[in-house]
Amino acid sequence: MSSEFSVVANFYIDTEERFLRLKDSYYSFSKSNISNWKINIRGELKYEVEKFLRSQIKERILDIQFLETKDGWIADTETLLKDIKDKIIFFWIEDHICIQDYKIINELVNEMYLYKVDHMRYTFFHKGQILKVLESVDYNEKKLLKFIELNNKNYEKFNRWYFNKKITPDYLVSLCSFMNIDFFKKNLTVSKNKNKYNVMLPFNFERSFQETELIPFTAGFLKKELFVSIDDNHGQEGYCLIDRKLYPNRVSKKELDAIRKTKTSIYGNKEGILKKIFKRFQKIYK
Q1: Any idea what the Cα angle at residue 69 is, between residues 67 and 71, rounded to 5°?
Q2: Phi, psi at residue 122, to the nearest 5°?
Q3: Among residues of the chain, what percentage have pLDDT more than 90?
Q4: Which residues have C-beta within 8 Å of that of residue 58, sequence separation ≥ 6?
Q5: Which residue has the higher pLDDT, 152 or 278?
Q6: Which residue, among 122, 138, 137, has the nearest Cα to 225 in the 3D structure?
Q7: 221 has which bridge partners?
Q8: Mean pLDDT rounded to a whole number for the chain
Q9: What is the pLDDT of residues 128-157, one digit of tens each?
Q10: Domain containing 272 — which CATH number?
Q11: Helices marked H in the chain — which ranges?
């Protein structure tokens, strides 16, 4: 069984620091069995990123676009998926780094193919915390991953386990994952009807525990840490690579977030709202 997969990304690179992190992330996994790259680049440094990727990846397997349409992130990401032949895609998040040998990725993808796994998060392992909920169900275990058929019955078992343990349930679907291409497309379709967040950002893609539209599907769980966030502790103190002293702290997460917030709002177009308020006051006081 082939372990080849496609890389899909739709990222916004607006500072030199984010660009440096993208490069480090790329080098951490790029030698694995990748058959093609479907990359959409936004932000002030998009042409610098393009130049870097073209210097690293063979032209025949690299498709770069600069989409940022009014239809939003979900619609633009759908456009990237044309001509993908692989059944497994890796959605690349540029500030996560693989800490294992790249050959492990190939083995994991191979297990996903063999056991028809639809979704497997590759980061935020948190010392195996995500695995604990599996004690509530019968699961399958292989060399590198565990997996279950996440149907209504197992979902309810998960739900009771979280309730009894007084633990906030994990997301059912995370963007930073390996996914079956059909599952990925199905979730993009579901995401078009979500308006929790700004449509220009990726957050409407992820499914909370309460969003069950994609059930049933085969959910995979890493048995060992694979990727780690550079600067996001994700609720666990000392988790990220910077806090582990495994990555240089050139620019803090707080500073990068502050820069990003001046350009866009997670819940909508902040600048647009302020302009509307200003225009309304202008009309009142004319």
Answers
A1: 130
A2: -105, 0
A3: 86
A4: none
A5: 152
A6: 122
A7: 146
A8: 92
A9: 999 999 999 999 999 999 999 999 999 999
A10: 3.90.550
A11: 16-29, 46-56, 73-80, 102-115, 152-165, 181-191, 253-261, 270-284
- How deeply is 160 buried, as exposed, middle or buried, from its count of CB atoms within 10 A (0-12, 13-18, 19+)? exposed
CB 87 within 8 A of CB 143: no
**Residues contacting residue 128 through CB under 8 Å, at least 6 positions apart:** 223
pLDDT of residue 259: 86
Do 99 and 228 contact (CB within 8 A), yes or no?
A: yes
Say whether pLDDT at 174 is over 80: yes
Give the mean model confidence (pLDDT) for residues 212-234: 97
CA distances from 212 to 95, 176, 207, 286 (A): 28, 19, 8, 51
Residue 242 CA from chain centroid, whole number: 20
* Beta carbons of 22 and 13 less than 8 angstroms apart: yes
Q: Give the separation between CA 57 and CA 34, rounded to whole angstroms.
A: 10
Name which of 148, 140, 158 is nearest 216 in CA terms: 148
b vs e for 221-253, b when ≥16 Cβ sit within 10 Å of the residue's Cβ?
Answer: bbbebbbbbbbbeeeeeebbbbbeeebeeebeb
Residue 99 sits at the vertex; the CA angle it makes with 221 and 15, to the nearest 5 degrees, is: 105
- Domain containing 44 equals 5-284
**Number of domains, the chain:** 1
The CA distance from 75 to 89, in Å, is 17
What is the reported pLDDT for 270? 43
